[in-house]
Amino acid sequence: MIRQDLDGAILLLNVDLFYFTGTVQNSYLFIPAVGEPILMVKRGLERVQAECQLHHIVAVKSPKEIPAVLERFAYKNMKRLGLELDVLPVNLYKVYSKLFSAVEVEDVSPLVKEVRSIKSSYEIAILRNAIEVMDEAFAKVPSLLHEGMTELELSALFEAELRKRGYAGACRMRAFNQELFYGNVCSGSSAKYSSFFDGPVGGMGTSPANPQGAGWKKIARNEPVYIDYTSIIRGYTGDQTRVFCIGDLPEKMKKAFDDILILQKEVLLSIKPGVLAEDIYLLALKLAEQMGYKDYFMGYKSDKVKFLGHGIGIELDEWPIFAKGIKTKIVPGMVFALEPKLVFEDGAIGTENSFLMTQDGPVCLSKSPERIISIQ
User: Are 75 and 141 part of one and the same domain?
Assistant: First the structure.
């Protein structure tokens, strides 16, 4: 903030409140460029005091009290104030512009995202736990999957395994209109259907109101069963994809899976500290085209998505984003998911793993076997 000549920032989004305070109760957080932060609590003061370790916690009845509270702590005559303009609704922006009419408002979101992109050892430990929960749930799939069950039935059983191990059930995303309920189960041809969700595999969903993920299709023999799920443990998001099959897959599908593993290996070798996120995506795109998968890499034909992976943390779509035009440098401490996938007329093939970036390169946190798991 000092670098950008900001006097301070007011954060309102739950995930940012959680990151900086440890609570998501109804509050307003002021972080000064110099000095101690103030958490102003509208509701749930007792719980905030139990969950939050900040020194200055103040009860308020309305955001209208914020300027007076800041003056009480000698934060006054501010000239430039940061707000989360990437997510703040226009109506709320107008409220705060009126409250601070003499102050120039700037977007502080890039600074927040930059800080959050580097994980502490505390955060990394929780993310490891989230992936462990995912691995345990995937290990149960062979005992859950059977011919004739619907995608919804399989998803419910898989989700129960996650819930029993602490899955919070709330996958948070920052991007506008992006919603994800747990994850995605698609069998055979249902994978090729696109959805509003920015992912390579869509799925039919339960209805046009929720047109994404598991639907009413019955799972048949000799088709890929694609499972792509998140695992939210203590607020942090693991992300993983594995492929199953009742019977055996066509040789085309098996070769495609082997090719994706080759592509992933080449991409991982290229990820070193200082490499740009864009370069990793462009390499993957080049390799997929050389392999003959131009029309199927990261989506079916015209419905392809234009990224290879994304940062993970308390949101599913954190920095870095591996996509064209993204100049973010990959540095130690980042945790991200890479998801090279192919989508054909008759199903989706691919993998997704979560990685911790170290000085020596990415370390895979996912432990589930990377192979097509066939059930006879």
Answer: no
| Amino acid symbol at 311 | G
CATH number of the domain where residue 320 is located: 3.90.230.10
Task: Look at residues 317, 334, 352, 222 and name the one whose alpha carbon lies nearest to residue 273.
Answer: 334
Residues forming a β-bridge with 353: 338
Beta bridge partners of 32: 8
Record the tokens describing residue 9, joined without a space.
Answer: 């920032």
- The domain tally of the chain equals 2
Tell me which residue has tokens 């942090």. Answer: 236
Query: How many Å apart are CA 354 and CA 52, to the nearest integer?
Result: 29
- Which of 116, 150, 173 represents a domain boundary (last residue)? 116
Using the 3D structure, point to which of 66, 93, 116 is the last residue of a domain: 116
Do 284 and 219 belong together in one domain?
yes
Q: Are residue 37 and residue 167 in the same domain, yes or no?
A: no
- Domain hosting 150: range is 118-375
Q: Does a cis peptide bond (omega within 30 degrees of 0) precede residue 320?
A: yes
Between the CA atoms of 357, 361, 366 and 371, what dihedral angle is there, to the nearest 10 degrees? 150
Do 124 and 181 fall into the same domain? yes
Best CA proximity match to 332, nearest among 279, 278, 275, 273: 273
* Residue 1 covered by a domain: no
pLDDT in tens, the chain (376 residues): 999 999 999 999 999 999 999 999 999 999 999 999 999 999 999 999 999 999 999 999 999 999 999 999 999 999 999 999 999 999 999 999 999 999 999 999 999 999 999 999 999 999 999 999 999 999 999 999 999 999 999 999 999 999 999 999 889 999 999 988 889 999 999 999 989 999 999 999 999 999 999 999 999 999 999 999 999 999 999 999 999 999 999 999 999 999 999 999 999 999 999 999 999 999 999 999 999 999 999 999 999 999 999 999 999 999 999 999 999 999 999 999 999 999 999 999 999 999 999 999 999 999 999 999 999 8
* Amino acid at the residue 180: L
- pTM of this prediction? 0.95
In the numeric block, the tokens 């929720």 are attached to: 210
How many Cβ atoms from other residues are within 10 Å of residue 87's Cβ?
A: 15
Q: Is 357 in the same domain as 367?
A: yes
CA dist., res. 67 & res. 72, Å (int): 9
- Residue 33 sits in the same domain as residue 170: no
